[in-house]
């Protein structure tokens, strides 16, 4: 095998310099690309506020109201009545349904590191999954009462209460449809917070056949009346 020609020191230096220069250039370009990706992925408060301004009005720049909320939901691709919007409001600590303040917006979205529609859309499944945690669900359920009720009233009106119960329990509580029917024909026009919290506890602990319901327990009268009503309805169905 013929021997390869030995390169001169000058040739080696020139070739190595070119190679190192090319490598430095590639590394520099790679670093700039990584930097741009990190910049796009990192949370920007300025970008988040600018996003908020797309939905507020000049008359009230620090509040996102019902019209802005409708556009926001449309942009994100979620119906306003979707439960994930309630979870988002919970993350923001929003005080009033249909409104986000600038501070609430920043609090919630900074926590989730979202400053754009795309980032929030990416986090929607995570928000939905929070409902699978019983403790988090309980916190969101309790939060929903003060969030949805009229702030001028201590109790929640029945129409709003039924809408929120449908949203939170409708798909998961087998007795929800019967309870909703009971509310329709009952004397109750509002639901107070004690009743609200106990409805969740009832839905989680009482069997569908009501066999473990203690009439002498510390349940609100509303639920005593529901059990009595449901037993009577079932007895009537058995006879017919």
UniProtKB/TrEMBL annotation:
One of its GO terms (cellular component) is ubiquitin ligase complex. InterPro entries: DCN-prot, DCN1-like_PONY, PONY_dom. It comes from the Eukaryota. GO terms for molecular function: cullin family protein binding; ubiquitin conjugating enzyme binding; ubiquitin-like protein binding. Residues 1-39 are annotated as: Disordered. GO terms for biological process: protein neddylation. Residues 43-231 form the DCUN1 domain. Neddylation of cullins play an essential role in the regulation of SCF-type complexes activity. This is Defective in cullin neddylation protein. It comes from Brassicogethes aeneus.
